[in-house]
């Protein structure tokens, strides 16, 4: 059933069309944006008008009020900024009757174009005074309003809104939102963007994260590339892929779980420094920090190792946080808006802990050196049972170790922390450690107990790589459907020679969560 407001507004549009009026004009010329208007005229004095200057602006009306039939006030929003529209019949090109009739039909949510002059009201509010105002796109629905239960609540809400202007790195106040219903915010993200001013800032912050990362690598001589999103083999990460079908070729294809193997093939081909920013797709469930599709920032650097990358990512993240927030320290509601925010310090150098050594120290264990043995598997299973660490079947050594890392190490990583030197059995694409047998030159960067980056000195021996893939096959046969599969084309590529190389992958969306104080990864980009 069509809501009565929608039905009535559709009828009004029909009447306009019948009278020869197009309610959806094709174009409106603007002379400046609302942001530019604010920058140029905010220095005007209280009550000052510049009537000899004509400005044309456009935006969406989100608030309307009137003191008489000859004076209407609107809040005009556009591109993250807001100004007041002070529509006075004395300044209008319309006569009083036309003015009253037209403005009485302007609705909250309408997109309008305005030609007028700048000035400040007697209360000192920067405004545009229209000579003409035209509805460019009517809004056919009633927009939600800020819900309050009493006059005191309303006053308190307005006070919070005035005093709280959110910027990256500080905490957000969800009570300032006009639209609060979570279901509506997720299902109709355009309303979330339209009504909650902070959400647009979140999107802009995420865009700045990507721009900063891109500029950072460009300045180091990297080139940006694009690799296939549909592949014949799902490789480059431990994850279950989405499967699709190519009708023309009548073959099964996988949505990529990582661009890693393609990027390393480019390094083999002679592109020594490459990176890609793009979507990956993984069947790994959905929660506050996991989605089936997310944006990966991944780069590969020839003639470097994981030590070099630790320095690079420290410089990248600390510089980004400093530039975007003015400090190396940020506040984040890691446990929800109902709890106190935590402080996260991105001041370099970041803390480093050795994976095996730290587990042994914290749990008072002596883990067997040969992690591929049945003895090691039994030992780790008993350790999980002893410390009540839950690990669903299959109980492979890799999965057991990963659960112990989560229990003993990840919980200590509030500030950025490198967990380094993972066992070979956990790292099929990483190069063996040059001085610690059984381990690899790999690190994961954790912030606020969550993995942000994964990186390693790349394994470039094709024989060892085939052997690692074979070991992964054993885990798959035990039921671990996230274990990697053999990619023969990649192994063949390695036979032509991959130079000593290091690579890193970072989740853009989790980083955006931290810098925008978003407890849910859905709120950091357009995800329904």
UniProtKB/TrEMBL annotation:
UniProt cross-references to SUPFAM superfamilies, sorted A to Z: Class II aaRS and biotin synthetases (SSF55681), Nucleic acid-binding proteins (SSF50249)
E.C. no: 6.1.1.6
Family affiliation: Belongs to the class-II aminoacyl-tRNA synthetase family.
Aminoacyl-transfer RNA synthetases class-II family profile domain ranges (all copies): 203-528
One GO BP: lysyl-tRNA aminoacylation
Signal sequence region: none
Extent of Polar residues compositional bias: 164-176
Superkingdom of the organism of origin: Eukaryota
Catalysis: reaction(s): tRNA(Lys) + L-lysine + ATP = L-lysyl-tRNA(Lys) + AMP + diphosphate
Keyword match Protein biosynthesis: yes
Subcellular compartments: Cytoplasm
Name of this chain's protein: Lysine--tRNA ligase
């Amino acid at each position: 059933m069509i809501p009565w407001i929608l039905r009535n507004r559709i009828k009004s549009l029909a009447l306009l069309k019948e009278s020869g009026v197009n309610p959806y004009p094709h174009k409106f010329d603007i002379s400046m944006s609302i942001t530019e208007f604010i920058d140029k005229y905010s220095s005007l004095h209280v009550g000052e008008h510049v009537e000899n200057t004509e400005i044309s602006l456009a935006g969406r009306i989100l608030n309307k009020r009137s003191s008489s039939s000859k004076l209407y006030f609107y809040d005009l929003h556009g591109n993250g900024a807001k100004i007041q529209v002070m529509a006075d019949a004395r300044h209008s090109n319309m006569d009083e009757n036309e003015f009253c009739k037209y403005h009485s039909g302007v609705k909250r949510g309408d997109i309008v174009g305005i030609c007028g002059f700048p000035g400040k009201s007697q209360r000192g509010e920067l405004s545009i005074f229209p000579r003409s105002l035209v509805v460019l796109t009517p809004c056919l629905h009633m927009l939600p309003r800020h819900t309050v239960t009493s006059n005191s609540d309303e006053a308190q809400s307005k006070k919070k809104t005035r005093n709280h202007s959110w910027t990256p790195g500080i905490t957000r106040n969800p009570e300032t939102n006009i639209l609060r219903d979570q279901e509506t915010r997720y299902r109709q993200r355009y309303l979330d963007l339209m009504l909650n001013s902070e959400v647009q800032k979140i999107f802009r912050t995420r865009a700045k994260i990507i721009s900063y990362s891109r500029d950072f690598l460009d300045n180091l001589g990297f080139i940006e590339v694009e690799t296939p999103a549909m592949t014949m083999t799902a490789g480059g990460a431990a994850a279950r892929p989405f499967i699709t079908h190519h009708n023309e070729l009548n073959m099964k294809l996988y949505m990529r779980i990582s661009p890693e193997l393609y990027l390393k093939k480019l390094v083999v081909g002679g592109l020594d420094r490459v990176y890609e920013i793009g979507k990956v797709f993984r069947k790994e469930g959905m929660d506050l920090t996991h989605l089936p599709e997310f944006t990966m920032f991944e780069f590969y650097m020839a003639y470097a190792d994981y030590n070099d990358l630790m320095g690079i990512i420290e410089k990248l993240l600390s510089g980004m946080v400093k530039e975007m927030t003015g400090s190396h320290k940020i506040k984040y509601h890691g446990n929800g808006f109902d709890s106190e925010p935590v402080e996260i310090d991105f001041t370099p150098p970041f803390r480093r802990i050795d994976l095996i050594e730290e587990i042994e120290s914290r749990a008072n264990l002596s883990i067997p050196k040969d992690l591929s043995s049945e003895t090691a598997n039994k030992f780790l299973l008993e350790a999980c049972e002893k410390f009540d660490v839950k690990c669903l079947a299959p109980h492979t050594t890799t999965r057991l170790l990963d659960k112990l890392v989560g229990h003993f190490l990840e919980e200590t990583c509030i500030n950025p922390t490198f967990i380094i030197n993972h066992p070979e059995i956990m790292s099929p694409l990483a190069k063996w450690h040059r001085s610690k047998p059984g381990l690899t030159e790999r690190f994961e960067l954790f912030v606020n107990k969550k993995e942000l980056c994964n990186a390693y000195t790349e394994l470039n021996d094709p024989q060892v790589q085939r052997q690692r893939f074979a070991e992964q096959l054993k885990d798959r046969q035990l039921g671990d459907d996230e274990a990697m599969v053999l990619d023969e084309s990649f192994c063949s590529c390695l036979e032509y020679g991959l130079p000593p190389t290091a690579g890193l992958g970072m989740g853009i969306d989790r980083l955006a969560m931290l810098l925008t104080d978003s407890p849910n990864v859905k709120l950091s980009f357009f995800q329904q």
